[in-house]
Amino acid sequence: MHVDPDRVRRAFTPVARPELVRDLYSPDEVGRLFGVLRDHGPWSLIAAQTFASAEEFLAVAGGGGARGDVSLADLITPTFRGYFAQQAVCLYDEVQEVFYSTKLLERVKEMFGARYGLPAQFFFNLRAPARSLDAGHFDPQVWRGMDMVKVPVWFSTVMAKSGLFDRWEVRTGQVITYFYRSPEDGGFTYWPDGPAQPPARFPAPFWNDAVVVHNPRMYHRGEASGPVALRANPTGMSLETVIAADGEDWVLRNGDEVIARHDASAMRFLFHYGARVFDDLDEVRAYYDHTDDLTMDRALGLIVDDLRGHGLDLEVPDDPFDDPAFVRTLADAYAVSPTSYPAEAPVDAVPA
Predict the structure, then answer these.
(1) pLDDT value at position 1?
(2) DSSP string, 301-324
(3) Is 269 within 8 Å of 262 (Cβ atoms)?
(4) Mind listing the domains of the chain with CATH numbers?
């Protein structure tokens, strides 16, 4: 299926270019945030939390369609995630004042010129030395009645690429703060003018440096990071691997078995705050009163109708959201991905 380039440009041009903010959090706030990471682990892999198959991963971060016999295990990197807050609810008392901080919410509202807003999500990534197999992705969009909790990430990606759901969109913006002292790769690549245009990047090192971004409408990627000699996955790493603090170090484990240990200087951390914004009270009421919600069944029906209308002979399986072949078909039909990368930050090859 041909994807109209003008529609892609409109769908993936953010409301504003990313803004870099130095020293976002106070020393006390930094201590509280890192305290959660150290005191409340272990933390599991992002891939284990997000994807059920290689097809789902590639639908989000690989340009659509699986490559050969690649499995999800081939695509994982030692990148882990936990949550400070979900669905506007703070999960740890020690960071409650950070999550509900007006300084974060106001930055997102200002980016959109929005009158109203609410904090929605706050998570963190912990990354041991790693390659980057991410060819560029965008954050899950939120639609009235559907959000990242209810919608598989791969299907959210297909929905956004289809361009069929703007009527139901709830606009979201992010404040993403990086902690990585090394200048050895580890930057943030982004495509502010659409995935067909040249990228830009914020290079490392970072420490308490934030970007204010409209990531559901902008392709971006975290670059490879950590000492190059340590970037290969540790022997035995699997979807069950977890990470936790051990003194000043960070340790990867399979059950009780330690498979890797890293000094904090080799780690790359980010804190990812997200807020939802509204122009007026009519938008607020539509969101909270559920007067114009989208459902999974309706969304799937609109996509199927669109693809059949473009001549694709599409059969819907009994379990469409978990069927790898169906995932691949939809990902290929709406395949969009960046076409160029910074010379300083290429995409790593999938290990043989």
Answers:
(1) 55
(2) HHHHHHHHHTT------SSGGG-H
(3) no
(4) 5-333 (2.60.120.620)
